[in-house]
Amino acid sequence: MAIAGIVIVHSPQDQKPLLTILGGMASIFEASPASPEKIAASVEIPAEELTGFLKRLAELPQALDLELVFVNYEDDLDENGFIPTPPEAKKYD
């Protein structure tokens, strides 16, 4: 599981609709206004789904920008303290 803190930048008139959209997403466990143009949100999602989820959030019509504040992958570390490379990741020789 990955836990991430994000900030979504938006136009002031889009704050209420965007909060409604975020409130309907299972992976968002908290979202609140940080300023008239920003919403701070916490995300909890399987690590392998995080990148795609953040891309979908950034593509919302109301989102002008998405800022990743922090990510915690602690639960996904293997016995050596590393995060396994996802199978779809590019491999370089």
> What fraction strand?
35-45%
Low-confidence stretches: none
What is the average per-residue confidence, as pLDDT, rounded to a whole number? 89
Please report the total strand number as a whole number.
4
Which topology does CATH recognise?
Alpha-Beta Plaits
Radius of gyration: 15 Å
> What structural class do you assign from the helix and strand content?
alpha+beta
| Mass-distribution shape | elongated
Element-by-element helix/strand order:
EHEEHE
CATH class (first level) name: Alpha Beta
Number of domains: 1
Tally of individual helices: 2
Mind describing the biggest β-sheet? 4 strands, antiparallel
Give the gist of this structure.
With 93 residues, the protein is of the alpha+beta class. Helices cover 23% and strands 38% of the residues.
Question: What is the topology?
Answer:
Elements: E1 2-10, H1 15-23, E2 28-35, E3 38-45, H2 47-58, E4 63-72
Antiparallel strand pairs: 1-3, 1-4, 2-3
What does this structure look like?
The model has no long low-confidence stretch (mean pLDDT 89). The chain is elongated and about 45 Å long. Strand 2 (28-35) and strand 3 form a beta hairpin. It has helices at 15-23, 47-58, and strands at residues 2-10, 28-35, 38-45, 63-72. With 93 residues, the chain is of the alpha+beta class. The protein has a 4-stranded antiparallel sheet with strand order 2-3-1-4. It has a single domain, classed as Lrp/AsnC effector binding domain/regulation of amino acid metabolism (RAM) domain (Alpha-Beta Plaits, 2-Layer Sandwich).
